[in-house]
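User: For my dataset I need records formatted as: sequence, then structure tokens, nothing else. Please produce one.
Assistant:
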Amino acid sequence: MKKLLFQFDTDQHSSTFDTVVAYDGGADHVISLANVNPSNVANLVDGCIFTRAPKDKKNTAIFIGGSNMLAGQTLLDSVVNHFFPGFRVSVMLDSNGSNTTAAAAVARIASSCPLAQQKVVILAGTGPVGQRAAAMMAMEGAKVTITSRSLANAEQACLAIKQRFGVDIQAQSASDDDSRAEAIADANIVLATGASGIQLLKPEHWQNNPNLKVLADANATPPLGIGGTEVLDKGELRSGKIIWGAIGFGALKLALHRACIAKLFEDNKQILDAENIFALAKTMA
């Protein structure tokens, strides 16, 4: 029986990246649907849960993507709430690659330095990857701060993380080079999750910081988010700090994404979100 993956995308166009990885993860056929939202998802879910016998439902699964993390989380809730005993399929949430990218980055950082009690700063951390990474590190016992050009945006992100994961994250405004350098002054770990092609730290802002142990940058487009690092850095030692570049931990992200797709077809009861995707990443790091 064919393994069918229904790709529910909250954007106008479904992600080609997610489609490719879905096939590489073991799906026999990917059905990509765009502009999916709670108001139109019910009939789509019905088509997934009513068409195969109980023993065969594991061969149908749902992947939720798109660029908007909140929209994806809301859609996941709608999908799961539409299930009922005996009628469900496995489902995965990875809006904008948030869960798999964050899990891979945090797992690689954790392999270089235990997270418990470490002071972590996530630069430009209000986006999907930054928020998920903040939650994962806080759940591991780290003391996490999110920065943003807007304090209000940082505080809103911290509130969303608190509501979803029950962990406390600090918010800090950091709108320029000097304020970002100040924000990381006491940090042990820095993760940059800013927009592509925007430098958040210059080399002199981190190279002589005696408190820093590990830096990671999720940006693969020049100029990198952390100046003085390389996109291919894979636990490289630079100025006494361990460095992870976007491609350096990106191999784990892709492997993790593929492994999650494969896991969806093990049975029809999987709900893959941040916590269990991160748990799987730690076993693979």
